[in-house]
């Protein structure tokens, strides 16, 4: 994540070290999947690595509840532990035009200043002191199964086009990870049931 310069431009998009960091992050996530780590561990790794790759102060993951159509907070990464607060979050409801736009367009959506952006739920943004937010859809088989949110506290920043594409790649990996871990978990449960019969 980079701050806007005096001329409004974005810098740091072609930094080779950031590319290497992103590749290392993908390797760590795929290794965790290969080791069949539990879902919570894999999701924490994803939000941590994405936050580090973009320089975002916080990153959280929200997964779809198919019965309600709402997104429930699962894990978060910040300087301090925010998991319990993230798990209380529900997005995509009435008035949350930001999440609806992420789902509708299936592309990253950015709010540079949440206090003036009409798509933001102002009360939630004030409570989290989230000035700038990037929402990224997690798409699996043409369905948005989750949303990744990256944000900054107290000062507006703008995520570059490069950082948005990087976040989208992380989101695709996250959707695949959620699906794989859930399938593995269901398979283990089925095998355990069969073994008891």
Describe the structure.
This protein is an alpha+beta fold and 197 residues long. The protein is globular. It has six helices and six strands. The relative contact order is 0.17. Residues 2-12 have low confidence and may be disordered.
List the SSEs and their pairings.
Elements: H1 16-34, H2 39-54, E1 58-65, E2 70-77, H3 83-86, E3 90-91, H4 97-105, E4 109-111, H5 122-128, E5 130-140, E6 143-153, H6 161-196
Antiparallel strand pairs: 1-2, 1-6, 2-3, 4-5, 5-6
Helix pairs in contact: 1-2, 1-6, 2-6
* Average pLDDT taken over every residue: 84
Shape: globular
Largest sheet: 6 strands, antiparallel
Q: Work out the helicity level.
A: 40-55%
Strand order of the largest sheet: 3-2-1-6-5-4
Helix and strand composition category = alpha+beta
Beta-strand portion reads 15-25%
Distance between the termini: 54 Å
Give me the count of strands: 6
Low-confidence stretches: 2-12
Rg, nearest Å: 17 Å
Order of helices and strands: HHEEHEHEHEEH
Individual helix count? 6
């Amino acid at each position: 994540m980079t701050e806007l310069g005096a001329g409004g431009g974005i810098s740091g998009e072609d930094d080779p070290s950031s590319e290497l960091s992103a590749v290392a992050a993908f390797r760590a996530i795929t290794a965790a999947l290969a080791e069949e780590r539990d879902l919570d561990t894999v999701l924490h790794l994803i939000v941590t690595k994405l936050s580090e790759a973009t320089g975002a102060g916080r990153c959280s993951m929200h997964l779809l509840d198919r019965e309600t159509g709402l997104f429930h907070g699962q894990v978060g990464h910040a300087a301090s532990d925010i998991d319990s607060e993230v798990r209380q979050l529900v997005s995509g409801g009435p008035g949350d035009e930001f999440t609806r736009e992420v789902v509708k367009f299936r592309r990253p959506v950015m709010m540079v200043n949440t206090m003036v952006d009409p798509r933001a739920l102002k009360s939630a943004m004030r409570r989290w002191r989230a000035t700038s937010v990037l929402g990224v859809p997690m798409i699996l088989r043409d369905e948005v199964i989750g949303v990744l949110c990256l944000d900054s506290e107290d000062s507006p920043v703008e995520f570059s086009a490069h950082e948005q594409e990087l976040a989208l790649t992380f989101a695709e990996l996250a959707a695949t990870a959620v699906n794989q871990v859930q399938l593995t978990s269901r398979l283990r449960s089925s095998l355990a049931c069969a073994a008891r019969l």
